[in-house]
Amino acid sequence: MVVLNKIYTKTGDDGETALGNGARVAKHSMRVTAYGTVDELNSVVGLARLQADGDVDASLSRIQNDLFDLGADLCRPDMEKDGEAEYTPLRIVGSQVDKLEAEIDGMNASLNPLRSFILPGGTALSAYLHQCRTVARRAERLTVELATMESVNPAAVKYLNRLSDWFFVAARMANDGGKADVLWVPGANR
C-alpha cells in the first residue's frame, strides 16, 4: 500500500531520484526518462478520457492502470534479482499485451482497410487518441534505447508497441468508424 503523507521530500533537490529498488540515479538517466514518458502518456490518456464514454472510457481507464504498472516495472531495474526482492516487483505480463491485441482485432474488424495515411484529427477524441499514440511511440523508443543499456522486461516493450497500435485503431473508431478520418493527400499544397 502506498502512503503519501508528505508530497515533497527534498531528497531530489540534488538532481537525483530513487528507483524502485532504492538505488539513487540522476533524474536525467535513461530509465527515469523512459518511465517519466510513460507518466506523461498517462496524463494524455486522462485528457482523451474527457472525450470518451462507454467501452472506450472503460478501456482507457484500464490502460491508465496498466501504465502505472508499466512505470512500476520500468522504475525497478535488475529483473534478474526479482526473486531476491522483499516483495515481488510488479511487471507487465503477456496477458496485458494479449488484451490489447484482442481489442485491436475487435475494433479493426469493423474498419475498412486504409488506402492512405491518416492525419491526426477528425473528432476531439480521435485527435487526443492520436496524441496518445505519438507519446506511446516516444515511450517505446526510449524504453527500447534503455534496453540497449540495462535489463528491461521484454513484455514492457511489447505492451508499448501494441498500445500505440491500439490508440491508432481507437482513433479511427472515434472518427465514425473511419468514415471521418482525415486523409493525407501527398503534395496537396505544392
Characterise the protein shown here.
With 190 residues, the protein is mostly helical. It has one domain (23-179): Hypothetical Protein Ta1238, Chain: A (Up-down Bundle). Helix content is 53%, strand content 5%. The strands form two sheets. The chain has a two-stranded antiparallel ribbon with strand order 1-2. The chain has a two-stranded antiparallel sheet with strand order 3-4. The radius of gyration is 18 Å and the shape is elongated. It starts with 15 loop residues before the first strand and ends in a 7-residue tail after the last strand. The model has no long low-confidence stretch (mean pLDDT 92). Keywords: ATP-binding, Cobalamin biosynthesis, Cytoplasm, Nucleotide-binding, Transferase. One of its GO terms (cellular component) is cytoplasm. Its main location: cytoplasm.
List the keywords.
about 190 residues, Hypothetical Protein Ta1238, Chain: A, 5 helices, PduO-typ, EC 2.5.1.17, nucleotide-binding
Number of separate helices: 5
* CATH architectural arrangement: Up-down Bundle
Output the CATH topology.
Hypothetical Protein Ta1238, Chain: A
The largest sheet has its strands arranged as 1-2
Q: Approximately how much helix is present in the residues?
A: 40-55%
Radius of gyration (CA) equals 18 Å
Query: Whole-number average pLDDT?
Result: 92
Tell me the fraction of residues in β-strands, as a range: 5-15%
* Sheet of most strands: 2 strands, antiparallel
GO biological process, one term: cobalamin biosynthetic process
Keywords: ATP-binding, Cobalamin biosynthesis, Cytoplasm, Nucleotide-binding, Transferase
InterPro entries: CblAdoTrfase-like (IPR016030), CblAdoTrfase-like_sf (IPR036451), PduO-typ (IPR029499)
Family: Belongs to the Cob(I)alamin adenosyltransferase family.
